[in-house]
Specification:
This protein has about 110 residues and is mainly α. It has five helices and no strands. The protein has one domain. The longest helix has 22 residues.
């Protein structure tokens, strides 16, 4: 899916859970997501939820599914700055939940 995109934004042509799972479990996940993380204009007051929503917008994933998946995150990190490591780990959790929801709906 994203393997041949060469630094272009990740595009999920078919919004299917299997495609998203393949991406987040694939070898290009970290490089692509670090690129997206860098593209997102971070402000000091941006929460992890805000950043994940902006990243998901790069995938054009339906917002209701994303909002449900964001409920998996605990609220303890809301006031802390978001580092790249936290973003990568938490985005993967949310993306897996989104993918599972998409698989169940198809």
């Amino acid at each position: 899916m994203a393997a041949g995109l060469k630094r272009d934004p990740v595009v999920i042509l078919r919004i299917q859970g299997e495609d998203l799972l393949d991406f987040i479990n694939g070898p290009n996940y970290e490089a692509e997501m670090v690129s997206i993380f860098s593209q997102i204009g971070l402000s000091n007051d941006a929460s992890l939820h805000d950043i994940i929503i902006k990243a998901m917008e790069k995938f054009t994933v339906m917002s209701k599914i994303v909002e449900l998946a964001l409920q998996l995150l605990d609220g303890n990190d809301q006031d802390e700055p978001v580092c790249k490591k936290t973003f990568l780990e938490e985005f993967k959790k949310v993306a897996k939940h989104v993918a599972q929801n998409l698989v169940e709906r198809l």
